[in-house]
Write a structure and sequence with these properties.
This is RNA polymerase sigma-54 factor. Sigma factors are initiation factors that promote the attachment of RNA polymerase to specific initiation sites and are then released. The strands form three sheets. This protein has a four-stranded mixed sheet with strand order 4-3-6-7. It folds into four domains: about 200 residues, no CATH class; about 60 residues, no CATH class; about 70 residues; about 70 residues, Arc Repressor Mutant, subunit A (Orthogonal Bundle), CATH 1.10.10. The protein has about 500 residues and is of the alpha/beta class.
Length: about 500
């Protein structure tokens, strides 16, 4: 075969850079979008942020709030997209002569720029300032190991004991329990150190006196006993609680209260008070030390009720207002093809497309949020039990978009409502059939299940089969395994573990 040139015609679907940018911004969360906007402001001189207090064009779509009318429509002004693209504002200009008067040609000898003019770096407090606390601005979440090591540094110990304590602390899991048996810990040390098992046991008891109380325990029984022994001696029912945890913890775990009363020789009311004392203890003492950084949620949409109408509006406080810098835009010359002018023209076009993509994102988010509120009006009025079945296809048909677009809009986007802050995906749920031929949302079934468990008799908790029967009596046909799945998703224990004394 010989190489040859062949001309073919065909069609293929391609995405323009503008469309790719719009899709990428659409799926970003609010925090990620703020970072994206800041990056655009840092790299594009044509973009600028509208500072608070400045006059902002009232017709700017970025400053408008869309309200949901009684009939479910949104009050959206036509032509907002084009107005926003062309909206620019004037920027204060400085004459070169003014700058020449303000900045001398030469600075005094042995001086720095910060000595004459204040900068962002020089505005920071000095290290000698008593009010300046570096740790409060740079510290992160503390781990359990670092918390224990800090206490270890304050404890008087020999070098050998400190080495043993450091090794034991490394073997403590985030829950506060010692994972490794002491004989295995002994194998971690050099035989030349001549460390014995009794020494490790003594050091472990020292660590078990650290905070949080109960840390360093090898099992749940030892953890609870450590906490009980550090309570004041005059604590009521303390001796009975120590005896119950030490000798009958397995019976308590099986919730066999009649057997406990016989073995402990206590009446029902006395046993209840002993168990109440034990329930004040922490079975996972290490969880008191928070090592993870807090996660913040910024709502994208705000829903509120005003004059018997549910209003939907964007959270403009979480979104910086952007505009095209009029001064820089005025430097662009149409007929000039120089490299500088071409760069400025490209930056101006990118700035306009970026603002247009943000506007498209907000409009799409408003459309989807408005339809969700319209469909789930019962939830906002009455709570989870009034939640209706909803899938992505329903919203996609209502707003005339593809399901993949709806999925991007509802991912990591949050709605602030009078009932709390919810991710948009929370309002989507599957359904089960009812006896009347209708449909019931799985979220509503979970709410009903939670309500039934809260009202059950603690001595005789409802089994999954009994809950399924009660739901069927309300016209909701749910299998027992479905009830178990919903119960586990709510973090509700089985009936055998929910049994307790009144």
């Amino acid at each position: 075969m010989k190489p040859s040139l062949v001309l073919k015609m065909g069609q293929q679907l391609t995405m323009t850079p503008q469309l790719q940018q719009a899709i990428r911004l659409l799926q970003l969360s609010t925090l990620d979008l703020q970072q994206e906007i800041q990056e655009a402001l840092d790299t594009n001189p044509m973009l600028e942020r509208e500072e608070e207090g400045e006059d902002f064009d009232a017709s700017d779509p970025m400053a408008e709030s869309l309200e949901k009318a009684p009939d479910g429509a949104t009050s959206e002004q036509p032509g907002a997209e084009s107005r926003h693209e062309d909206s620019v504002s004037t920027v204060e200009s400085f004459d070169d002569e003014d700058w020449g008067e303000r900045i001398p040609s030469e600075l005094p000898v042995d001086t720095a720029w910060e000595d004459i003019y204040q900068t962002s770096a020089s505005s920071l407090p000095s290290s000698d300032d008593d009010e300046w606390d570096f740790t409060t601005r740079t510290s992160s979440g503390e781990s359990l190991q670092s918390h224990l090591l800090w206490q270890l540094n304050l404890a008087p110990m020999s070098d050998t004991d400190r080495l043993i304590a450091t090794t034991l602390i490394d073997c403590i899991n985030p829950q506060g329990f010692l994972d490794e048996p002491l004989d295995e810990v002994l194998g971690y040390f050099d035989p030349e150190l001549d460390i014995e098992l009794d020494e490790i046991e003594v050091v472990l008891r020292r660590i078990q006196q650290f905070e949080p109380t109960g840390v360093g325990a090898r099992d749940l029984r030892e953890c609870l006993l450590l906490q009980l022994r550090q309570l004041p001696s005059e604590t009521r029912w303390l001796d009975e609680a120590v005896r119950l945890v030490g000798d009958h913890l397995d019976v308590l775990g099986n919730r066999d209260y009649s057997l406990l009363m016989r073995r402990m020789k206590l009446k029902e009311d006395e046993l209840r008070q002993v168990i109440d004392l034990i329930q004040t203890l922490n079975p996972r003492p290490g969880s008191q030390i928070e090592s993870s950084e807090p996660e913040y949620v910024i709502p994208d949409v705000i829903v509120r009720k005003h004059n018997d109408r549910w209003l939907v509006e964007l959270n403009h406080e979480a979104m910086p207002r952007l505009r095209v810098n009029a001064q820089y835009a005025g430097f662009v010359k149409r007929a000039d093809s120089s490299a500088d002018n071409t760069f400025m023209r490209n930056q101006l076009q990118e700035a306009r497309w970026f603002i247009k993509s943000l506007l498209s994102r907000n409009e799409t988010l408003m459309k989807v949020a408005t339809q969700i509120v319209e469909h789930q009006r019962g939830f906002f009025e009455h709570g989870d039990e009034a939640m209706k079945p909803l899938v992505l296809h329903d919203i996609a048909e209502a707003v005339g978009m593809h399901e993949s677009t709806i999925s991007r809009v509802t991912t990591q986007k949050y709605m602030h409502t009078p009932r709390g802050i919810y991710e948009l995906k929370y309002f989507f749920s599957s359904h089960v059939s009812t006896a009347e031929g209708g449909e019931c949302s799985s979220t509503a079934i979970r709410a009903i299940l939670k309500k039934l468990v809260a009202a059950e008799n603690p001595k005789k908790p409802l089994s999954d089969s009994k809950i399924a029967g009660l739901l069927e009596a309300q016209g909701i046909q749910v299998a027992r395994r479905t009830v178990a799945k919903y119960r586990e998703s709510l973090g509700i224990a089985p009936s055998s573990e929910r049994k307790r004394l009144l």
